[in-house]
Amino acid sequence: MSDDRKVGTVKWFNDTKGYGFIEQEDGGEDVFVHHADINCAGYRSLKQGQKVSYTLVTNAKSPKAENVEVVPPDAP
To answer: Where would I find the CSD domain in this sequence (predicted)?
Structure first.
């Protein structure tokens, strides 16, 4: 597991099912994200098009995002 933070854009997120996918900024396979891995207060959800940072974990199925945080709109 790597501690390097990655950046990407939410491709889609299903509030009902509690998961979605992130498109990696540097290319590569889309990354699975589960609501339990979103760091925020209150209801854990993401919106399509939101910029996020995350820790990339590779498992047998596919890349997964952990420690997901929304990047503020005014951040570089």
So the answer is: 5-70
